[in-house]
Design goal:
This protein has six helices and two strands, in the order ααααββαα. The chain is mostly helical. It has a single domain, classed as Winged helix-like DNA-binding domain superfamily/Winged helix DNA-binding domain (Arc Repressor Mutant, subunit A, Orthogonal Bundle), CATH 1.10.10. A two-stranded antiparallel sheet has the order 1-2. Helix 1 packs across helix 5. The chain starts with a helix and ends with a helix.
Length: 145
């Protein structure tokens, strides 16, 4: 490796570009109906299925104390529900409701559309190259602890 410092610098530049061009617009779409952490909690539960508060806090890397008011609001809005674990009645799980799934699908669709509109401006060859780079980059980043 030539220069690890240069690699880190380039990585940070890419992260800043991703934040400015894709993450912030996605946050604005999600914020139109949910806060960013609420959307994140909803998306984790949507993907993972039912989780306990501790499991969700671990996935989101936040404390249970931070998560409790956020989850309470999602439950009050009918987007999540608490339910007993079928295997351990003492354990309480969180799950996404039908309306929660509908809202997530709608927001995900809007975010996907927003990103796709940006990508449409690229020539086909660059889109194909970007797709390969993203796949390989994902593989590499998954291998990092």
């Amino acid at each position: 490796m030539r220069d690890l410092e240069e690699l880190v610098s380039n990585f940070l530049v890419v992260l800043a570009d991703m934040r400015d061009k894709f993450i912030r617009p996605a946050d604005l779409i999600a914020r139109s109906r949910l806060g960013p952490l609420q959307f994140y909690a909803l998306s984790v539960l949507y993907r993972e299925g039912s989780l306990s508060m501790s499991e969700l806090a671990g996935e989101m890397q936040v404390s249970k104390q931070q998560l409790t008011p956020l989850v309470d609001r999602l439950i009050e809005n009918g987007l999540l529900v608490r339910k007993a674990d079928e295997n351990d009645r003492r354990k309480v799980l969180l799950a996404v409701t039908g309306p929660g799934r509908g809202l997530y699908d709608a927001l995900y669709g809007e975010i996907t559309y927003s990103i796709a509109e940006k990508f449409k401006t690229l020539p086909l060859r660059e889109l194909e190259e970007l797709e390969q780079l993203l796949k390989r980059g994902h593989e590499i980043l998954k291998s990092i602890n």
